[in-house]
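Technical note accompanying the year-one report. For the benefit of new consortium partners, we illustrate the data format agreed upon in the data management plan: each record pairs a sequence with a structure-token string. No post-processing was applied to the example shown here.
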Amino acid sequence: MRCMSDGFVVNKIPDSVFAISLFRAIRREMPRIFAIYDIDMPLEQAKAAIRKHFLDNKDIKDYRVQEMLVEQGYFTLETTMLQHKQKSHLMHFLEGYTVPMEADRKRLFADASIDEQFARN
């Protein structure tokens, strides 16, 4: 129970219940999200990444911050389901920052021939 400044006592559901509900909602929607965004990642690895994000914030005691994080989580889930994100955004969330393979293209020097400049591989 929490005592408000105007003297009213409010029965409050623990914030952990809302966080658990969000966690379950995310895990329930993961197969659908993977199908929408064509993500080729083992489901167990994605579940571990989601669990890690939740455990990163487990020591937060301020109920206002906890409520804000839960609301932000629901908003992120909703925008993901409505396809307002791109696949790269989700992969960054699940895997962290990785250098994509496309960035590892062949480097050209100033004295490169015309054939080297237009070679496809």
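Partners are asked to follow this layout when depositing records. The chain has five helices and two strands.
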